[in-house]
Amino acid sequence: MRDTVTSLISNYDGAGRYLDRDAMESLKSYFTSGMDRVKVATMISANAAGIVRAAGTRLFEQVPELIRPGGNAYTTRRYAACLRDMDYYLRYSSYAMIAGNDDVLTERVLQGLRETYNSLGVPIAPTVIGIQIMKDMVKGMAADAGIENAAFIDQPFDYITREVSEVSI
Ligand SMILES: CCC1=C(C)/C(=C/C2=NC(=C\c3[nH]c(/C=C4\NC(=O)[C@H](C)[C@H]4CC)c(C)c3CCC(=O)O)/C(CCC(=O)O)=C2C)NC1=O
């Protein structure tokens, strides 16, 4: 599992080079956004259950067939599995924000996910909608707290979206 610092050092060490201006710029941007990253991760931790519940409600309003007979999130068990997956995406996104690196997502969340979803008939498009709803909710909370630069919030949610979308069913 990598973060901004370890991945940078590993790249430069691989090339046997001292950190140069590019490396310093990248570190500077990571450290200057550091407090905001911590603040947003704290907000996520404190509100995770509410975010997941509200995002789920919004998703099922947008795509009501998911929870109707024949829908993939129909039955209490599958409804709960869906919200649990949303919670995984939210929690791991908060880790990736702190790390400033998506490696934790690749390693812990995305491996084999598409295959699992395909074999269970979990539809990708509404999964992506759910992830994007959570992203927008977190960005809204960050904006309310005066955090202007939200690129680091987009990053993990969009990364999961891109990776999981690669194969559609
Ligand atoms: C931490 C990494 C990790 C991830 C990401 C993960 C995902 C994951 N989601 C699963 C199922 C599932 N995932 C969903 C999700 C949904 N269905 C919908 O219609 C919606 C679009 C969507 C919610 C947004 C559902 C309904 C199931 C159960 C499907 C079934 O058993 O038929 C399964 C199959 C095993 C199980 O049911 O627990 C896995 C492995 N597990 C992990 O350990």
UniProtKB/TrEMBL annotation:
The UniProt entry, under SUPFAM superfamilies, shows:
Globin-like
Q: Where does (2R,3E)-phycocyanobilin bind?
A: 72, 77, 82
Q: Name one Pfam family in it.
A: Phycobilisome
- CDD domains on file: APC_beta
Name where it's found. Answer: Cellular thylakoid membrane; Membrane
Question: What organism is the protein native to?
Answer: Vasconcelosia minhoensis LEGE 07310
Which controlled-vocabulary keywords does the entry list?
Antenna complex, Bile pigment, Chromophore, Electron transport, Membrane, Methylation, Photosynthesis, Phycobilisome, Thylakoid, Transport
Task: Name any GO cellular component annotation.
Answer: phycobilisome
Instruction: Provide the positions where the record notes the PTM N4-methylasparagine.
Output: 72
Membrane topology per the record?
A: Peripheral membrane protein
Q: Give the family per the record.
A: Belongs to the phycobiliprotein family.
A biological process from GO:
photosynthesis
Q: Which domain of life is it from?
A: Bacteria
What is this protein identified as? Allophycocyanin subunit beta
